[in-house]
TrEMBL record, chain A:
<keyword id="KW-0560">Oxidoreductase</keyword>
<dbReference type="InterPro" id="IPR001501">
    <property type="entry name" value="Ni-dep_hyd_lsu"/>
</dbReference>
<feature type="binding site">
    <location>
        <position position="63"/>
    </location>
    <ligand>
        <name>Ni(2+)</name>
    </ligand>
</feature>
<feature type="binding site">
    <location>
        <position position="456"/>
    </location>
    <ligand>
        <name>Fe cation</name>
    </ligand>
</feature>
<feature type="binding site">
    <location>
        <position position="406"/>
    </location>
    <ligand>
        <name>Mg(2+)</name>
    </ligand>
</feature>
<dbReference type="GO" id="GO:0008901">
    <property type="term" value="F:ferredoxin hydrogenase activity"/>
</dbReference>
<keyword id="KW-0479">Metal-binding</keyword>
<keyword id="KW-0533">Nickel</keyword>
<dbReference type="Pfam" id="PF00374">
    <property type="entry name" value="NiFeSe_Hases"/>
</dbReference>
Automatic annotation (TrEMBL), chain B:
<keyword id="KW-0378">Hydrolase</keyword>
<dbReference type="GO" id="GO:0004175">
    <property type="term" value="F:endopeptidase activity"/>
</dbReference>
<keyword id="KW-0645">Protease</keyword>
<protein>
    <submittedName>
        <fullName>Hydrogenase maturation protease</fullName>
    </submittedName>
</protein>
<dbReference type="InterPro" id="IPR023430">
    <property type="entry name" value="Pept_HybD-like_dom_sf"/>
</dbReference>
<dbReference type="GO" id="GO:0016485">
    <property type="term" value="P:protein processing"/>
</dbReference>
<dbReference type="GO" id="GO:0008047">
    <property type="term" value="F:enzyme activator activity"/>
</dbReference>
<dbReference type="InterPro" id="IPR000671">
    <property type="entry name" value="Peptidase_A31"/>
</dbReference>
Amino acid sequence: MNKKKIVIEPVTRVEGHGKVTIKMDENGKVENAFLHIVEFRGFEKFIQGHPYWEAPVLVQRLCGICPVSHHIAAAKAIDQLVGINPENLTPTATKLRKLLHYGQVFQSHSLHFFYLASPDILFGVNAPAEQRNIVAVAQADKELAKKGILMRKFGQEIIKALAGKKIHGILAVPGGVHKTFTKEEREYFLDGKQIPNIDTMIEWSKEIIDFMKNYHFENAQWIDNFAAYPSNHLSLVHKETGAMELYDGDLRSIDFEGNELLNIPDTEYRNHFKEAVEPWSYLKFPYMTKFGREKGWNRVGPLARMNTCTHIPTPFAEIERQVFKGYTQNKPNNMTMHTHWARLIEMLHCAELIKDLLLDDDLMGTDLVTQGTPRNKGIGIIEAPRGTLIHEYHTDDKGLITKCNLIVSTTHNNEAMNRGVRAVANEVLSEKPEITEPMLNQVEMAIRAYDPCLSCATHALGQMPLIVQLEDNLGNIIDEKIR
Amino acid sequence: MKRLDNILIIGIGNNTRQDDGLGWCFLDNLLKEGYNEENLVYKYQLMVEDAELIAEYDTVIFVDACISELKNGFEIDRIYPAEKVAFSTHEVPPNQILNLCENIYNKNPKAFMIKIQGYFWDIEIGLSEKATENLKKSIEDFKLSRL
């Protein structure tokens, strides 16, 4: 038997374009496997020379799914350029930004669960490819699909109310926000007359967590072991309490056993992180300098946040976190597929946070912007749906951007996703007489668990069908599948 | 104001990518001619929740730029629910939205796709000359077609 190379391109049911190659030896054993990010992102470069106040508007064009996250991270950095730290924003400005952010996380998590992840969960990994999609979900469970759409819509409507439109809107300005919230806008989300209200969102979030817990119970053996591997975990946590914190906090990293590796003010990130590059991907590999490239990488996102925080500061989500933590006897959870469960708990947390804010009269305040003394460097870090998102800008004395560094969530997860691909390829493909499509789907599932937004990490154009090619060791194509 | 009654027109595209703005420019022209604004929707891309949006209308028309060569520079086709599924939520085809609408909401609006040929896709605002010609022809035809 000759050596083989398997290519999965693009990886499906993820946001953006990626490619997987799996190299197999003469005995059909997996030698190595890589997740390649094959498009180039130029935002850090072409934003140079633009006035700093354009950054929150420009950088959100990185993505059509999570523009709000980039808008807010950039805004937090730009606040500092006008001399305002997060704690100096007015209560109204902070709360409006948080509402926007939680709406974004809520809609993004809904979209991922219902549209991208639920087909695998409902139909199983071995279901025919034509069945593993949202259309089949809609046919099999109409109510689940309807709830998914309405939950996603609720988050999108929050974004529209605050930023003017659902994609690429604007709320934040340097030092604050440009608009307040009206009573009518608030009632729209509370009274349930035009769309299901926030209480319904909370109830549906609980239902979906129960659905996921049942799925875990019935599939524990598989879900606990699939693509499971030890790793560090990184996220923001509340500065004083260590609670889950999505908008502003300290950076905390723990290892796979729970030992604390890092706990620093977020603005000091540059002293503690480096980014490595590999010739086969445009996506960098961030790691903690102190622990080196091999041991210093982190997972970020829902699973990491569940591991790094001491508690969740909303009651229903905290109950669910305790159940989640109980599964691993309160130790860090390194089971990749549990990320889906963690994501749903965060969805509930965001729904609760949104309700708290909707009932807060500060939302309708009129003190929107704070002025400060300009500086030349700003760092904004938030917990985006997919994990820790870092924006850093430097300006000259005219306020023009001279340097920009973006570390998006998917970049932090680059090493983790590659390890997942290798683990699953070894488990599922090694020394098997035939490579089937469901086997390749399992490789994709190891990536899909992270909900990677490859469009954020790059910028993609054009139509790319899924092509799986089998090549021998001379590079000859010996089999090809297109879907 | 020209009433569109229970017709929704969705322009898909990005006006900062030259001819990719054709779908939006189509709507801009209808707005200038007095068509009612609430029935014209600008979108970068279709999303799953658009299945709910279109469920409220008898007719839905999708307008998008097209890179392929079209006989008259544009094409108007009747489209139907299909099970074609996009690999990412960044790209959801109209017939998938129709399918979701039918499955989830038991609604099947009459649907059309207006494809307008474009030629240039760089980061720049403004249509190319040939795309502008195609746009004009497509609008004239749309007004005559009584969709």
